[in-house]
Automatic annotation (TrEMBL):
TM region(s), chain numbering: none
Family: Belongs to the cytidylate kinase family. Type 1 subfamily.
Catalytic reaction list: dCMP + ATP = dCDP + ADP; CMP + ATP = CDP + ADP
CDD domains: CMPK
Protein name (Swiss-Prot/TrEMBL): Cytidylate kinase
Highest classification ranks of the organism: Bacteria, Pseudomonadati, Pseudomonadota, Alphaproteobacteria, Rhodospirillales
Subcellular locations according to the entry: Cytoplasm
Annotated source species: Varunaivibrio sulfuroxidans
């Protein structure tokens, strides 16, 4: 069983993915880390994030152990990821990695959950469960702003909002695998929902599709 979760940054899809993985005993892959790792490899090599050939080389050389780097959770990594994710050869290089994980999750997982931008539309269009988690840009910016402050980092709300809107625009406008909800996905707008309600909504949907029991 495959659960595909897509959506923009700071919408809550990562939290939902982790809770569902724990509840169902599924393996979890945050596919955004793949693109963050590629972007940071390019930056570390003093490369140009707009250089398709260099970014594709970095993607082909990516190792699973590189996904555990704490630096991948930084805003710099997020911005780098958004840029290399728009490069078709990079997406092609990472496609097999994601599909292999989805269809052959590490033992003893009973299934796989992939969290990203194009899982239900491109990576796993055959996923039994498709969720699109979203929220208004303003709400997402407030969440990211609070997260940065809680981590002891300096931040300006207006700048956080601007960065999110720029990233949304890149994700939606890219020619290859743009950020869109699959036609058969459940769209969950978390703007006025807490994590418990989002989780319950997803579980109810899974149950309604007769592919899993309530955890």
């Amino acid at each position: 069983m495959i659960i595909a979760i897509d959506g923009p940054a700071a919408a809550g899809k990562g939290t939902l993915a982790r809770r569902l993985a724990e509840a169902y005993g599924f393996a979890l892959l945050d596919t955004g880390l793949l693109y963050r790792a590629v972007g940071m490899k390019v930056v570390a090599a003093d490369g140009d994030l707009d250089d398709e050939e260099g970014a594709a080389r970095a993607a082909r050389a990516l190792r699973p152990d590189e996904l555990s780097n704490p630096a991948l959770r930084s805003d710099a990594a997020a911005q780098a990821a958004s840029k290399v994710a728009a490069i078709a050869p990079v997406r092609a290089a990472l496609l097999d990695f994601q599909r292999t994980f989805a269809h052959q999750p590490p033992s003893p997982a009973k299934g796989a959950i992939l969290d990203g931008r194009d899982i239900a539309t491109t990576v796993c269009p055959d996923a039994e469960i498709k969720l699109f988690v979203t929220a208004s840009a303003e709400i997402r910016a407030k969440r990211r702003y609070k997260e940065l402050l809680d981590r002891g980092l300096s931040a300006i709300y207006a700048r956080v909002l601007e960065d999110l809107e720029e990233r949304d625009a890149r994700d939606k406008a890219r020619a290859v695998s743009p950020l869109v909800a699959a036609p058969d996905a459940l769209v969950i707008d978390t703007s006025a929902m807490d994590a418990d309600r989002v989780f319950a909504t997803a579980v109810d949907f899974i149950k309604s599709r007769n592919v899993g029991e309530r955890p």
